[in-house]
Amino acid sequence: MLLKVSKKTRYEPAKKSLFGFRGFDRAGKQKVGSTSKQADRADHVWYIDTLLESARNGEIDVLTSSLSIVECVSVKDPTKESAGREFFAGLLESGKSGIKLIQPTSAIQLKARDLRWFSELSLKGFDSVHAASALIFRCDELLTLDKDFFNNADKLQNMGLQVLKPGATKCLPEHRRQQSLLE
Question: pTM, whole model, 2 decimals?
C-alpha cells in the first residue's frame, strides 16, 4: 500500500498531503525479515502512525488508491493472518484511520498508462496507478519502501513528486517532530 502526503490537494490547498505506505506490517517488520532492518522499519512505523494521527487531526492529508484494499491481503507471519486482515480492513475501510481512498478514475488510469508510455517510468500496473493518483492529486510526497519507485524517483521528482521512505517525510508537522524527541 502506498500513501501520499501533500500540502496542496484539491480539497484543502493549505494542507500537506502524502500518498501511500508500502511493504509494512503492523509491527514494522520488513517482509524479507532481516533483523538489522527491523529497527529501521520500526522507525518508519513511528512516522506512519504519527502521520496518520496528523491526518485524523486535519493537519495533513494522507491518501492512497483504493487499489490498496486489493494489495493488502496478507502478512508475512501466517499465525498473524487473522489479525492482519482485521488491521488492513480497519486501516483502509473504516474511514477512521486518517487515510482518504482515491478511486482509480479514467483520468488516473490514462495518466498511469501515459507514465509508462511517454514518461518511460518502469512501474508495474498498480504502481503506475499509485503514481498517477499522487500526481493528479498534486501530492508532495509518495512514501514507500518499494525499490521500483526509488528506481524511478528522479523522473517522478521532475514531475513534482518526491519519493521517500516514511522516516524521511518533510510533511510531518513540526510540533509532531518535536514529540519524537520527547519519547
Answer: 0.77
